[in-house]
Amino acid sequence: MRFLETERDVLKRSLPGLDEALTAIAPGDLERRGSPGTTAFREAGGPGLLVPADLGGIGASPLEAVRVQRAIGSRSPSLAVATTMHHFSVASLVAVSETNTGLDWMLLQAIAADNLLLASGFAEGRPDGQILKPTMTATPTTDGVRLSGVKKPCSLSRSMDLLTASVMLPRPDGPGEQLAVALIPAKDDGVSVSPFWSSFALAGAESDQVTIDDVLVPSDLVVTTSVTEGEQLDDIQNAAFLWFELLVTGSYLGAASALVELALGSDRISESDRLRLVVTLEGAMAAVENIARRMTDELDSRKLLMDALLVRYAVQDAIAAAVPRAVELLGGLNFITSDRVGYLAAAVNGLGFHPPARAKMAGPLLSYLDGNSLTIS
User: Fold this and answer.
1) β partners of residue 208
2) Is the pTM here over 0.90, yes or no?
3) Residue ranges per structural domain of the chain
4) Is the CATH number of domain 235-369 3.40.640.10?
5) Labelling 151: which of 263, 332, 338, 364 has CA 20 to 30 A away?
6) What is the dihedral of CA 297, 303, 309, 314, to 10 degrees?
7) In CATH, what class is 5-114?
8) pLDDT of 274-320, one tens digit each?
9) Is the peptide bond before 356 cis (omega within 30 degrees of 0)?
10) What Å distances lie between residue 97 and 51, 70, 287, CA to CA?
11) d(CA 86, CA 84)
12) 364: preceding bond cis by omega (within 30 degrees)
């Protein structure tokens, strides 16, 4: 079948053996707690997907990366969502390394060489919507930074090697504070993981609670930036958010595509109905791919981020239209005799829960269209 052929070909070229490994595992096992999906991802070299090639990584382009995520999402939505958070952390480090003169490149080399998995401790789960505001308290010391705080939910909580967290530190060149990224070793005695995610949907993403209790992060694992405290985005944050929106959207499109793939395999469904499902999702994917292509050479990252958010919300609508229709067309017998249909129908709803929420961004996006600076809330 040619549906998803492009995405799966890119996955096979980028991460050899992963698609075969995932198809060899029962879908239910990939989506449960303790899923073997993260191990398969690590063994295929997945942690280095966004690490630049000159640092030993795969150096995937945005277009290649979003196709990889869609392909993975069609096999395991949990793995796609979990690895999006890893890639978000790596993309943040890459963005910092491009403007920093420190040793950030050594961290990126280690991620690729040792297949290290990064969980994201950034503040994207805050109930007050201030997703750019760090949740960790930081106390600078002569040896590094002491951190305390809680992140919940935190994907890859049980497979991570490092937890990335944003912190505010005193500026070395004057008053005020600046943003820094701390990489916290998962094996530190002050790091603990406790149950949090109680839903059956996306349980394989390991989205539990991570507690940081007075952990000393050495100076060589603290990456400073020039970003000052506040809500307005800078180029580094723009780049990281762009990657996140691109990959999380592709991941959920993959999950929806798995359901449409089931419908395409049923000759009981009319040709016109099957084609309508494909048109809806392929049109959505084309919009996502347009953002990915523009990321490689477009200079106005704020305009591109706005467009990426608009595309993401449009994809949510496309999924909301295609998935219930696919479930209906597959019929009650498929729903009753297999968990797969019901599971995918539930899992795709997760896209609407990732930040920034559409309702919260309505005002900022309209304000940007009116000529003001783009803010994320």
Assistant:
1) 154
2) yes
3) 5-114, 118-228, 235-369
4) no
5) 364
6) -90
7) mainly alpha
8) 999 999 999 999 999 999 999 998 877 788 999 999 999 999 999 99
9) yes
10) 11, 27, 29
11) 5
12) no
